[in-house]
Design goal:
mainly beta; eleven-stranded mixed β-sheet; five-stranded antiparallel β-sheet; 55 strands
Length: 711
């Protein structure tokens, strides 16, 4: 690379500049080494370089180290113990062989002499050379701060130079610490020039201003900002109001009167009145949009023939000029539809040729010109005249072409012969697409034919049916999706029957022996189940016409009861029902026959009594915990005649008993006490038996202990 900064993460940081000639380069390390590679010469300064100061922090009379194996040659200075000084631009060596002398300044040249003759204004502390008086200024190139070429103010730390500050062969950085402002120039500063690389238009970088094609601009405080990157090509930078930022936008200045946004082209100047295409005046333009700013907006198209044109106004007028014909449609135009007021308005023919009330319009010739008939009297029919103007005449019953009449003041169209059936789409009731039959006698029926697959008919005695066993659908499908709710409401008092003509509830569906009934608070399914709701409880009847049920209510009560109730009866449920299982609203669970609510978290009641368990038999078992196969289990019960209870570990399928462990994992066992004092403690009045490992105690009679092998 031409420029490199390496060892940033670890090691000694090194900045290098390539000579662009093999591996030759110059480098500067973080530990103070300025060197070259491939044994190139290292030259400090150039014909345009000012003074070169070698300032060693350890020794005031040193400052240049020549590495081992390398030489520093100063042509013409060959004496031993020589020091270099400049005399009118010439570097000269001053030599002495006398030890312990000091170099003293003179009027033109320095001299070796006694050290007491000079004055030392500097001190060395902690590898730092500083003036003895730290408040003094340092001036180089003059004997005052105003005339010096370079000076440092001892109290403020300000540094000024009359020359050029140059960073040679290394990256140069001028910066502040602690995020202080860095100001370049002041009230007495002239032009500030930023030169690109080799005075070209490249090499100047503004860190942080990285919006591609972003333009730099300043605000009233002189702060430089950058616009956002343009979102596309062909945009212009648009100025903004005070205290705002310029932005990229449509180029609407100069001779471009158009803007574009969201795919829409529109004039940039909102105060433009008219838009003309093809000419500069509204009368001669081929296309014109006028009255944009004020008045009724009008769009016109010129016929390119005199002042003939077609125009459309914003208040709904489509017209022509110079009494030209106005034609709607052409040979390639589809249907022309008029829909005034969403289909509820009127169409007005504003012409004296069409203003006779009660007349009808007709096509008067092959060109499609509208004509107007005369006015007839009440009850007359419009009769054709073989190509001439239709006329109103009397509608005679014997007229073979007219079977209809409108009785006066009825507004009702009806057949002249009111006993005839009516058919559309065919010459018979069986072949017509729509038919109303049995008008004269029988049950009136209206039918719609579906073709060869059958039809649908509605009778006056309340039957809506289909033929050919077709399905009947009420409402249309999701394709049309125009049907609202389908309501079946028999006056609020009747019932709806499916599969029955005598519904027994508000909704009753019957299929063979299956019967579903639903009414307020009740649902019944025969022969399986019925659900009723009375006094805040719900119950279900299962297994036949009479059987067990479960109950629950909104307070959290749940029960399975064995009291039989007949189906389809709104039964009253309550304390008379025998519960097999109860869960109360307080969380208590009861299992067994009885009606009493469980008083404990788990109450188990059984009507089975036995004095003991007979191994190999289920006789006398009231409760048990069993394995799912084989009869293994723990059995327990009581004798209701004695009140005694028992526990037996065994197997009902064989004459086998098994061990029963109490407290196998730890703890104590108490009999007659709730606080056992040993592993086994039995208490009865003043008698106390205690047993633990190595100890048996009987109170008040005897105790037996075992210690160290003795009893």
């Amino acid at each position: 690379s031409k420029f490199a900064v390496i060892n940033v993460n670890s090691g000694t940081p090194v900045a290098s500049i390539s000579a662009n000639n093999g591996n030759n380069s110059t480098y500067l390390t973080g530990n103070g080494t300025l060197g070259t590679t491939n044994f190139q010469n290292l030259t400090l300064g150039s014909p345009t370089t000012g003074s070169i100061i070698l300032n060693n922090i350890a020794y005031a009379n040193a400052g240049l180290n020549v590495p081992t194996g390398q030489n520093l040659t100063l042509s013409g200075i060959t004496g031993n113990n020589s020091v270099l000084y400049s005399n009118t631009g010439t570097v000269t060596g001053l030599t002495t062989s006398t030890p312990n002398l000091c170099l003293l300044s003179g009027t033109s040249t320095p001299q070796w002499g006694t050290c007491a003759l000079g004055t030392n204004y500097f001190q060395l502390n902690g590898n730092v050379i500083s003036p003895y008086n730290t408040t003094l200024d340092l001036a180089i190139g003059g004997n005052s701060t105003s005339s010096a070429l370079f000076q440092i103010n001892g109290t403020t730390g300000n540094a000024t130079t009359s020359g050029t500050l140059t960073f040679n062969n290394v990256p140069g950085v001028i910066q502040t610490t602690n995020v202080q402002n860095l100001t370049i120039g002041g009230l007495t500063t002239g032009q500030i020039t930023l030169n690109g690389r080799n005075s070209s238009n490249t090499g100047i970088t503004f860190a942080g201003y990285n919006n591609d094609q972003g333009i730099l601009y300043t605000n009233t405080n002189g702060v430089v900002n950058q616009t956002a990157a343009p979102v596309g090509a062909g945009l212009c930078l648009l100025s903004a109001a005070a205290a705002s930022s310029p932005t990229w936008g449509s180029c609407a200045s100069g001779f471009n009167y158009w803007s574009e946004a969201l795919g829409t082209l529109y004039p940039s100047h909102t105060n433009i009145d008219d838009l003309l295409l093809g000419s500069s005046s509204t009368s001669s333009a081929k296309f014109a949009f006028i009255n944009v700013l004020t008045g009724t907006p009008t769009a016109s198209i010129s016929a390119n023939n005199g002042n003939n044109s077609t125009y459309l106004t914003g208040n709904g007028t489509l017209g022509t000029t110079n009494f030209q014909n106005l034609t709607l449609g052409s040979p390639t135009t589809g249907n022309i539809t008029f829909t005034p007021l969403n289909g509820s308005g009127t169409i007005t023919l504003n012409s004296s040729n069409y203003n006779t009330a009660g007349s009808l319009l007709y096509l008067s010739n092959s060109s499609g010109t509208l004509g107007q008939t005369g006015v007839g009297t009440n009850g007359q029919c419009l009769i054709s005249t073989a190509g001439g103007t239709p006329i109103f005449q009397n509608c005679a019953l014997g007229d073979a072409t007219n079977w209809w009449t409108v009785p006066q003041n009825t507004g009702l169209l009806q057949p002249i012969n009111s006993t005839l059936d009516f058919a559309l789409g065919g010459t018979s009731t069986s072949s017509s697409k729509f038919a109303v039959i049995n008008v004269n006698s029988g049950t009136p029926i209206a039918s719609l034919s579906a073709g060869t697959t059958g039809g649908t008919f509605l009778t006056s005695n309340g039957y809506l049916s289909s033929t050919a066993k077709q399905n009947i659908t009420i409402g249309n499908s999701s394709i049309y999706n125009t049907t609202g709710n389908v309501l079946i409401n028999p006056n609020g008092t009747g019932s709806v029957g499916i599969g029955t003509t005598s519904p027994a509830s508000l909704l009753n569906a019957v299929s063979g022996n299956s019967d579903i009934r639903w009414s307020s608070g009740y649902l019944g399914i025969t022969p399986a189940m019925s659900v009723i709701n009375t006094t805040g409880k719900a119950s279900a009847l299962v297994a036949g016409t009479n059987g067990s049920q479960f109950e629950f209510d909104n307070a959290g009560y749940f029960a399975i009861v064995g009291t039989a109730h007949s189906q389809f009866t709104n039964n009253t449920l309550g304390s008379s029902d025998t519960a097999y299982l109860q869960v109360t609203s307080s969380g208590n669970v009861g299992i067994g026959d009885g009606v009493a609510a469980p008083t404990g978290r788990l109450d188990v009641v059984s009507g089975v009594s036995g004095s003991q368990m007979t191994l190999g038999s289920t006789t006398g078992i009231s409760q048990s915990l069993e394995y799912d196969t084989g009869g293994w289990g723990m059995y327990f019960g009581l004798n209701v005649s004695t009140g005694n209870g028992w526990i037996q570990q065994g197997r009902t399928s064989s004459n086998t008993a098994y061990n029963l462990s109490l407290q196998p994992s730890g703890g104590s066992l108490g009999i007659g006490t709730t606080s056992p004092a040993s592993l086994l403690n039995a208490v009865s009045g003043n008698s106390d038996i205690r047993w633990s490992s190595g100890y048996l105690g009987i109170t008040p009679a005897m105790s037996v202990i075992n210690t160290t092998g003795k009893a």
